[in-house]
Amino acid sequence: MFASTIARRFLSANKKQTFFIIFGIALGVAVQIFVGSLIGGLQQTLLDRTIGNSPHIVISSTSDNPQISNWTGPVQSIRGISGVSTVATVQDGQAFVTNFTKDALVLLRGFDITEANKIYGFLDKIYEGRAPASVNETIVGKEMQKQHDLELGDTLELQINLANPFDTRNVTIVGFYDLGVAAVNKLWVITKKQTTTGVFGYGTNITSINIQVADPFEAKTIATSIKALIARPDLDVVAWQEQNAQLLSGFQAQSISTYMIQAFVLISVVLGISSTLAITVVQKSRQLGILKAMGTNDKQASNIFILEGAIFGIGGTSLGILLGIFMFWGFAANVKDSATGGPLIYFVLDWNLILISAVVAIIACVIAAASPALRASKLSVIEVIRNG
User: Fold this and answer.
1) Of 16-30, 203-217, 241-255, where does mean pLDDT reach its minimum?
2) Do 86 and 219 have their domain in common?
3) Are both 123 and 260 inside the same structural domain?
């Protein structure tokens, strides 16, 4: 109680210095939170745009025959795995559209539309028309529509067997989608599985199992669990990390850069507080000498500066958190993606990062006060009197 009272009086005696110290700490904490949140938001944005509307794990055949039989049991088992959020079965096959000005290769993809929508978000990406509801109804992408001047109700004549040009199937366009990837919009013709079953003769077989998980970074671990669970050597289980190694390397480099920046900011804050409090010990040596002459012991004298460090840490950290969040919000709200007009980076706060930054900053401030506190405890009353 005594030490805290004296600490507050010392701080209030020089309000300008106290303000600048707290503001300096706040800036340091704000930079830590801003940079950490910025990198985290950037990673979340890149991850969402790369795999947000695509499967995190794909199971396909290891043989030349793409068809997967006896898939019902494995799918039910996969749905029971912790962390798996969506499982969708797919029937894929290549076909040539022969009634375009020039024959075009397309990928006819048969889904359970409701099931697959949880992964791909088809229903939200249809900008004209509707989703396929019946056999032989399809939706095609924006690039395909523009390139071939397609309209709702147009028919696509699909040739499956190149050896027999008269073996064709007709499907009707009932909608147009935009998945945000030009190559996909140009290639995919999306329909119900009943259509692909009839076109390719798959029967009850499928060609792949698409899986989405709650935490994308756990996909590789879950893929390993799936492989062990289904124990099918004829099936290949691939997580998105295996196909996006460069993206993961970029994330790791960004994270390391963030930690380096935060470390240097923290070091500068610690040095600033330590040097300021050391000067304060010299400035307040007369007052400390008087207090010691009146009975203040060494521990109480050192506690005065430890408490000052704690007050600086708590005050600066609290202000820094608010300032850091405000800076990140301002950046996310005002910096737009020139291509889409939407936010360039998602405003996603990592509360674990904020909590860790706050705790580390407060502890660092207390540690920074240790040296001045030790000096204060060793201050001799006789030396103070001798030096006037």
Assistant:
1) 241-255
2) yes
3) no
